[in-house]
Every structure is written in structure tokens, then in C-alpha cells.
Amino acid sequence: MSDDQTTADEKIKRIKRLAMVVCICKGIPLGKVLPAIKACDNVADVNRMAGTGTGGCKGQRCGPRIKMLLRKKHELQSDDSKTTETASDSDE
Ligand code: FES
Questions:
Q1: DSSP per residue over 36-84, as a string?
Q2: Three-state SS for 7?
Q3: What number does the ligand 1 atom closest to the CA of 52 have?
Q4: How far is the CA of 68 from the centre of ligand 1 (A)?
Q5: Whole-number Å distance between alpha carbons of 37 and 7
Q6: What is the distance, to the nearest Å, from the Cα of residue 13 to the centroid of all Cα atoms in its chain?
Q7: Burial of 55 per CB tally in 10 Å (0-12, 13-18, 19+)
Q8: pLDDT tens, residue by residue, 52-76
Q9: N or C, which terminus of the chain has less Cβ within 10 Å?
Q10: pTM (2 d.p.)
């Protein structure tokens, strides 16, 4: 498979992932929730920013998804800080 095809496939996967609905009640896709995930550290703030958690189930279905996304963000941030610490350690 060529690099162009791989890139196109990756873009299609990314678009599908971003179109995935996080809040079923309000029909709010991941693409709209991600900026709130990046900016916030708890579900309540994400709900305020993205409009999730205000549908019929009051966040029973989207709340756990948002929690999981926040946990993944924190894991990635801690991995980044470990990498940065390791890189700065080797600079000394
Ligand atoms: S799925 Fe988000 S409020 Fe119900």
C-alpha cells in the first residue's frame, strides 16, 4: 500500500472516530467533545463546555465515556512528562 493510501485511510479513520457520538441523548459527537476534554479536568466542566450530560439520561451514558477520555488524556500527559523527564535527564 502506498503512503498516500495509508494517509487517506488514516484520515478516514480519524473522521469516523470524530463523528462517533459520545452523548447519545444530545447527538454530540467526539469532535465536539475533544476540545472540552483538552481544556477541562473533570466531567462537570466538560459537560458545561460541550453540552453533554444534559439529555434525558442526565449523563448516565455519556458520563462514563467522558471519564474514560479524561483518564486517557491524563495517561498521555503523564507519559509525555516521563518522556520529557527522561530526555532532560539525558541532557545533563
Ligand atoms: S448520553 Fe449524554 S445525556 Fe444522555
A1: HHHH-SSHHHHHHHH-TT-STTTTTTHHHHHHHHHHHHHHHHHHHHHHH
A2: helix
A3: 2
A4: 15
A5: 26
A6: 15
A7: middle
A8: 999 999 999 999 999 999 999 999 9
A9: C
A10: 0.78
